[in-house]
């Protein structure tokens, strides 16, 4: 019995710390295999590339903590990007266009929340449906064509930095800090965790599960709208084509970060590290000349391993 208990504790340790341990291991391996991996230029590029995924993963973490999932998050980001592009190209300034992007994305979050919290539609079906809705809307209102955006503010967002930290990752860090405070230092955050742990018990203690679920989908969508600004800044245009890689990786980052897919176990730093790990993995494989066909396979294997380890997380 003692041997079994010791083995369980070991597995629990690996499950709780999969993201930081994996990130350290990847840095060591890739720095040995590629002399350019730890150069300042490449580190800065990785951090900038990770910013979008970090923000999406934080939004996804709020949803998954309640025991839900948001399959529409990447399509929501795409719709937000198109909303920004159309608003800016029609004469609105940067800040007004940014507001349009966030509100466009939050419309999908509102639909998700109402369907799931009020309509009692399962999260998988509801967000799968709104994934198609957001994708269709983005294609329709843009006529399926990219919208070029020439904005000094976006140029500053893309090229500006404080040392090796570009403005995108600084923005992502601010979002992470605010999210951590909300999740662990406010009553709302406690309610999110309570609903994910046991909705019946939460309701019995006076918590409105309906309002909590509606709120987390709005948060995820609002952050997707914010990520849309970084996406437009990075690409230089609002692209109507959905990038499903962001959807899969946002969920993967949360799983790697130790957030339980069954809900009730909240983490913010973990998903952030998970997003950095996935970015480092893709970057390292690219530097080593590994075909892009193999990169999703590597990411998938890492995520499956992390998902298996979650079985041994401490309750």
TrEMBL record:
Please classify the protein's predominant subcellular localization into one broad category.
Answer: membrane
Keyword list (alphabetical) reads: Cell membrane, Membrane, Transmembrane, Transmembrane helix
Asked if the keyword Mitochondrion belongs to this entry, the reply reads no
The answer to whether keyword Membrane applies is: yes
> Could you tell me the superkingdom of the organism this chain comes from?
Bacteria
Could you identify this protein by its name?
Ribose transport system permease protein
Q: Where in the cell is it found?
A: Cell membrane
GO terms for CC?
Answer: plasma membrane
What the entry lists under Pfam families is as follows:
BPD_transp_2 (PF02653)
In the bilayer, the protein is annotated as: Multi-pass membrane protein
Q: Membrane-crossing residues?
A: 12-33, 45-64, 71-88, 94-117, 124-144, 164-184, 214-236, 242-261, 268-287, 293-312
Q: What is the lineage of its organism?
A: Bacteria, Bacillati, Actinomycetota, Actinomycetes, Micrococcales
């Amino acid at each position: 019995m003692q041997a079994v208990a010791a083995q369980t504790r070991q597995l629990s340790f690996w499950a709780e710390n999969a993201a930081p341990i994996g990130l350290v291991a990847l840095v060591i391996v890739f720095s040995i295999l590629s002399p350019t991996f730890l150069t300042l230029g490449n580190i800065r590029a990785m951090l900038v590339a990770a910013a979008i995924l970090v923000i999406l993963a934080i939004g996804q973490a709020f949803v998954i903590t309640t025991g839900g999932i948001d399959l529409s998050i990447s399509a929501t980001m795409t719709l937000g990007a198109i909303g920004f592009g159309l608003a800016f190209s029609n004469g609105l300034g940067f800040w007004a266009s940014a507001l349009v992007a966030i509100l466009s994305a939050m419309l999908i979050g509102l639909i998700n929340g109402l369907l799931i919290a009020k309509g009692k539609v399962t999260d998988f079906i509801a967000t799968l449906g709104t994934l198609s809705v957001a994708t269709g809307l983005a294609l329709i209102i843009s006529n399926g064509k990219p919208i070029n955006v020439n904005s000094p503010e976006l140029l500053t967002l893309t090229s500006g930095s404080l040392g090796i930290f570009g403005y995108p990752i600084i923005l992502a860090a601010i979002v992470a800090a605010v999210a951590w405070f909300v999740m662990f230092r406010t009553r709302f955050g406690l309610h999110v965790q309570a609903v994910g742990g046991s909705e019946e018990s939460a309701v019995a203690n006076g918590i409105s599960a309906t309002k909590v679920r509606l709120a987390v989908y709005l948060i995820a969508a609002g952050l997707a709208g914010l990520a849309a600004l970084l996406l437009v800044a990075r690409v230089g245009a609002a692209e109507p084509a959905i990038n499903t890689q962001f959807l899969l990786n946002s969920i993967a980052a949360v799983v790697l970060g130790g957030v339980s897919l069954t809900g009730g176990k909240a983490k913010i730093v973990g998903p952030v590290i998970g997003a950095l790990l996935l970015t480092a993995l893709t970057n390292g494989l690219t530097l080593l000349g590994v075909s892009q066909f193999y990169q999703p396979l590597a990411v998938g294997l890492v995520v499956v391993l992390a998902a298996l380890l979650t079985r041994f997380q401490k309750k």
